[in-house]
Amino acid sequence: MESPLLKQVVPAENFFSTDIRVGCITSVEEFPEARRPAYKIKADFGAAGILQTSAQVTNYSPDELTGRAIVGVVNLGKKRIAGFVSEFLLLGSYDADGVVHLLSPAPEAVPGDAVG
């Protein structure tokens, strides 16, 4: 399968202005109001606090997600999705079939650690 097209080159400052942190998922709820199957997820990002997001990661069960270490972007602002306020972007990769595989930090990373 071919790789998706690469995106346009952007100034490095754009990347370095994002605040990417290690988090730990604390709760997962069904999100039936979403257009595509999704969960409402809360995660602890240490000093950045507990933030929530909507994520289309239903290939994982809520039990698989709860307690999982994750990587998220925490400074993109709030976005309203079907009446729900999303506060961070959960990072993952997409395989050739469009299935999301969440990024995982190293085992020694703790919530709030910066990713750079």
Structural class: mainly beta
CATH topology of the domain at 38-106: the name is: OB fold (Dihydrolipoamide Acetyltransferase, E2P)
Could you tell me the strand content as a percent range?
A: 35-45%
Classified by CATH, the class of the domain at 38-106 is Mainly Beta
> What is the helix content?
under 10%
**What is the CATH superfamily classification of the domain at 38-106?**
Nucleic acid-binding proteins
Q: What is the straight-line distance between the termini?
A: 29 Å
Number of helices, counting only DSSP H or I runs of 4 residues or more: 2
Please tell me the overall pLDDT: 94
Shape label:
globular
Radius of gyration: 14 Å
Biggest beta-sheet profile: 6 strands, antiparallel
DSSP, total strands = 10
SSE sequence, one letter per element: HEEEHEEEEEEE
Low-confidence stretches: none
Overview of this protein structure:
One of its GO terms (molecular function) is tRNA binding. Residues 14-116 form the TRNA-binding domain. InterPro entries: NA-bd_OB-fold, tRNA-bd_dom, Tyrosine-tRNA_ligase_regulator. It holds the Pfam family tRNA_bind. With 116 residues, this protein is mainly beta. It has a domain at 38-106: Beta Barrel (OB fold (Dihydrolipoamide Acetyltransferase, E2P)). 8% of the residues lie in helices and 38% in strands. The chain is built from two helices and ten strands; from the N terminus they run αβββαβββββββ. The strands form three sheets. Strands 1, 2, 3, 4, 7 and 10 form a six-stranded antiparallel beta sheet that branches. A two-stranded antiparallel ribbon has the order 5-6. It has a two-stranded antiparallel sheet with strand order 8-9. A hairpin with a 2-residue loop joins strand 5 (79-81) and strand 6. The longest helix is centred in the first third of the chain and has 5 residues, at 12-16. The relative contact order is 0.26.
